[in-house]
Amino acid sequence: MMYRLLFACLLLSSGLFAQQQIDRVVALVGNEPILVSDIEAQYRLLLSRTKEAPPENARAVILDQLLTNAVVLAEAERDSFTVSAVEIEGQLDSRISEILRYMNNDPEQFKAYYGKTPEEVKNDMRESMRKQMVVQRMSANIMQSVTVTPKEVQTFFSKIPEDSLPYFNSTVELAQIVIKPKVNDKEDERARQEAERIRQEILNGADFAELAKQYSQDPGSGARGGDLGITNRGSFVPEFEAAAYQLDENEVSELVKSQYGYHIIQLLERLGNNIHTRHILIKAELTPADEERAKNEADSIRSLILLDSFTFDQAVQRFSEDEFSKTRNGAMMNPQTGEPYWELGDLSPEVYFAIEKLKKGEISEAIEYSTPFGEKEYTLIKIRNRTIPHVANLQDDYSRIQMAAKEEKKSRYIQEWVAKKIDDHYVEFKFQSLGSYADFFIKKNGQAKNPQLQRWMMEP
């Protein structure tokens, strides 16, 4: 659990590191700087994840990855590859909420630790989060065609020395079907009327920003008077975007309904194909009866699976409302590892007690679960595999080894892709201004001390 907190904290560490007056530019890829703090944040994360001392070239490996990310980012922006403002805000809210949970949801404790309020830290993180998400999405797009054959998995496993085979603790591989409660018509109508009342106040001359601060239920923009900043096409959900792009400057929209609730949108300015907007979001609230209906639906799906009306995998595609796991055939991913394998100690209490006595292939009762945003969901969990502590082998751990083989192949693929793109981008090292810190990367003759950095060195 401590590692999860440390990971969340390290996401904020670049700014804190800079405050220590030692931040300097290591390299430039185009106009994108790579800082000492970027390297040190990742180095600290590495330290938190292993009990062994990192290899001597660890910082050079980190720098190589940061340079790779910078090229991917530059290519993504050249191709106008974006992520939406809604997605960025969702990630920021999730990260900040996770940290606050470990601080007993005490904003004052948060401020004492970071020297800033949660909202100020979110503002500081927003651009770096955007870049991180663009790199992740672009990398996934580049590598989407990478697959591994059973023969490649066997070859990958055979190359691991016997004395280096990993030892796995008892683990479970989980899949899920998620059912989300749906707001009833009466509550939906209440939210619509509330949003319409606020809209009429604006049309009658009330200050939009003040009403946003008072009423908006968008945790990201409400405190900023509803301001969503300057965005390009593809940044918002379709309903919001379609309405926003039809507005004239300073015009206030009709009510716009999306999956998040009712929006009141105002276009502040249009900059070519980009727009600057603000909004007020009013959400309909779930009632206990809405939640009970969702639980009953989950129970019914479980009963139908047990009666062989359809398989669990078919039910995932037909009923599950969690798009992330649905696209992975229901796989319930461990956020600490990015894999669908969980050591029992990594499971939340509600999941642990629900699956503790289940055998491979069995399905849990419906579990009530609260998301990081406090929203209730009902989840059915299937045990796809369950192991006792053992040395890795192809019979028990094929899918795990397959994933490792695929990741190794992806790593080679992205490195080859980047190698073809390096010449398209200006890359400059700034080691001359770093003093002894440069010893991590180069010798005095200017040649790369670590081979993986040699390809990045500019010709004299």
TrEMBL record:
Quote any Pfam family the record assigns: Rotamase_3
Query: What GO molecular function terms would the record report?
Result: peptidyl-prolyl cis-trans isomerase activity
Enzyme Commission number: 5.2.1.8
Q: Which InterPro entries match?
A: PPIase_dom_sf, PPIase_PpiC, PPIase_PpiC_CS, PrsA_foldase, Trigger_fact/SurA_dom_sf
Start and end residues of each PpiC domain? 169-269, 272-373
**What are the boundaries of the signal sequence?**
1-18
Q: Which UniProt keywords apply?
A: Isomerase, Rotamase, Signal
Q: Would you say which domain of life the source belongs to? A: Bacteria
The enzyme's main class, written as a single word, is isomerase
UniProt protein name: PpiC-type peptidyl-prolyl cis-trans isomerase
Q: Which organism is it from?
A: Saprospira grandis (strain Lewin)
Gene symbol? surA
